[in-house]
Design brief:
The structure holds 2 protein chains of 2 kinds. In chain A, 78% of the residues lie in helices and 0% in strands. Chain A has helices spanning 3-14, 27-34, 37-50, 52-64, 68-91, 98-116, 119-123, 131-152, 160-190, 195-221. The chains are: A mainly alpha, B alpha+beta.
Chain lengths: 225, 344
């Protein structure tokens, strides 16, 4: 690996650590209770930055995309999807079991790794569904997960719509902040000879992580913990 | 033997008898681990545990569904009984415990003390009126307690669920949807029917700004606590009463329905009911009590407490740093495997 590759390697290794200082903790509730609308933006952003399941799915999506225009299109589809369910489900107090929805989010990570590795054609002998539609559908599911998290906080109902919108805005900001280094690293590595093993390693990891996340959430869902 | 029996009765009386279901916080997050406390003594102190064989019902009501609690989820520590419980989806929850009836024989003096001590004033007046103050008593008693708490934001109608206990308070409005300065309508049921003209005592654990004219001082004779200022109310002909909620905090209602009965070996029967709930933001703070009752009443509201109590939060299932380290290691191993394959 040349010097540029070494720097990139270190960069990608450190990538998951960017959120260490922003771990979402139980202190969020106190923050939401005492802070204003900024607190909702902050908690939304930190939740996205530390929500490894959301980030892993986005990593999988970015791998597939080469042009900036495409990235904007797919991320917009994901954003519209999760905004619809996040805002409407929270406003209507509709909630799905958090473990169940997180298990499905885990499956979305698995799906993306599976698709990127070309395993639909290789193993199932079928073409994968249209990615843009799938990203939108998974966006809806991720939004339900985000909503369940927001609803788990005890939030004063006064001005609830603004609070939800601020949380959603925070999620978008967190998403953009997370995507910048991800897109940068993947695009730089794409130009290098070591890209192929890196691509395979990362997408194999997405499959493993997706299985792990799904199993972990289902374990809790069925009360086996 | 009779002396020992009476002595035991006096000790029990001086320890007080109320039973309460309580939480450190009444506003909880969904899918989080919480501990419900079963106090047997006063609101502030538990004097003894309740063994599982005494519980004939332990229920949780949430989102229209009533579920029984596994007795293995109960444990005793020191003098308090605890229930480990995991909240589910958001809603207003009800937890209830009903105990088996037991009998207790008391001398006339002990019985008199108990009636005064626990504010069973109607029976006291009746005994004075009938000239039976010197009669001994053998009382069958059972206790039926509830607590109402809020999980997440979603307010549900479960707060008014009837658990079907011999005696129970039914809140007619959701306390998590009200503010101080309003009256909380409450119905008292006895055998599922409204109980009229029944004395009810109302207390608040955090209402320091009480200004009730009818305050009644605690019967906690050790004087370890000063919060037990009780308001005395009486249900109307429909079993209703309006509880003036004067401040944010944890509130409780208690009553003892005591009647004379003609049954072999018994002279009286009592059914005890309490309900606890919180109003306002106070309910989301940690009111952890010193169970040993050392006198230091811990009303800590610090950020640290919030962190503590969320240790079971769903979000914190896998610490991020563990996830990150494992992820990096897995990607590294996979990278070297695939890179080696490429080079071969």
């Amino acid at each position: 690996m040349n010097q540029r590759g070494t720097i990139l390697g270190i960069g990608i290794l450190l990538l998951p650590l960017i959120a260490l200082g922003h771990d979402v903790s139980g202190g969020d509730r106190a923050l939401l209770e005492n802070g204003g609308l900024w607190a909702y933006i902050y908690v939304g952003a930190t939740h996205m930055l530390t929500g490894y399941d959301h980030l892993l799915f986005l990593v999988g999506v970015i791998f597939f995309l080469r042009e900036f225009k495409e990235i904007v299109k797919f991320i917009t589809a994901f954003t519209i999807g999760h905004s619809i369910t996040l805002i409407s489900a929270t406003y209507l107090s509709f909630s799905v079991n958090e473990y169940l929805i997180d298990a499905i989010i885990g499956l979305s990570v698995l799906y993306k790794g599976f698709e990127n590795m070309g395993l639909f054609q290789k193993w199932l002998k079928v073409n994968p569904p249209h990615l843009l539609n799938m990203v939108f559908v998974f966006g809806l599911i991720h939004g339900l997960g985000l909503s369940a998290r927001l609803q788990s906080f005890t939030v004063d109902q006064e001005g609830i719509l603004f609070k939800i919108l601020c949380f959603n805005l925070g999620v978008e900001l967190g998403q953009v902040l997370a995507l910048i280094p991800i897109v940068y690293v993947i695009n730089l590595w794409r130009q290098m000879s070591s890209y192929e093993p890196f691509f395979k390693a990362t997408n194999t990891y997405l499959i493993i992580a997706g299985i792990g996340l799904t199993g972990y959430q289902l374990w809790h869902f069925f009360g086996l913990s | 033997m009779k002396l020992v029996f009476q002595g035991l009765a006096v000790v029990i009386l001086l320890s007080s008898h109320d039973m309460f279901l309580k939480l450190d916080k009444y506003k909880l997050e969904s899918y989080s681990n919480v501990v419900i406390h079963l106090f047997n003594g006063t609101f502030d102190r538990s004097d003894n545990v309740i063994t599982r064989d005494r519980m004939i019902d332990v229920s949780i009501v949430a989102n229209g569904k009533r579920s029984s609690v596994d007795t293995t989820d109960w444990y005793e520590e020191d003098k308090t009984t605890y229930l480990n419980f995991r909240t589910d989806s958001p809603g207003t929850y009800v937890a209830g415990v009903s105990t088996k009836a037991r009998s207790l024989g008391m001398s006339a003096d002990s019985f008199h003390d108990y009636l005064e001590h626990d504010g069973v004033l109607d029976m006291l007046a009746l005994r004075k009126q009938n000239g039976t103050l010197n009669d001994t008593a053998i009382e069958r008693y059972s206790k039926h307690v509830k607590t109402i708490f809020q999980v997440g934001n979603k307010l549900t109608d479960d707060y008014s669920t009837e658990l079907g206990y011999s005696i129970e308070f039914i809140l007619m409005e959701n306390p998590y949807d009200m503010h101080p300065g309003h009256d909380l309508p409450v119905k008292l049921l006895f055998n599922q029917e409204p109980l009229a003209d029944q004395l009810v005592y109302v207390g608040s654990a955090a209402a320091h700004s009480h200004s009730h004219e009818d305050d009644r001082h605690s019967h906690d004779e050790e004087g370890d606590h000063t919060h037990d200022d009780l308001v005395q109310l009486r249900t109307d002909e429909k079993g209703l009463l309006n509880v003036p909620i004067s401040s944010e905090g944890v509130w409780y209602l208690k009553t003892i329905h005591l009647v004379e009965i003609e049954e072999q070996g018994l002279t009286h029967e009592s059914n005890w009911a309490t309900v606890t709930f919180a109003v306002g933001d106070e309910g989301s703070h940690d009111h952890s009590h010193d169970h040993d009752h050392s006198g230091d009443h811990d009303h800590s509201h610090s950020e640290h407490d919030h962190e503590h109590d969320h240790s079971g939060d769903h979000e914190e299932g896998i610490p991020f740093y563990i996830w990150a380290i494992i992820s990096v290691l897995v990607i590294c191993v996979l990278y070297f495997v695939f890179n080696r394959q490429n080079n071969v």
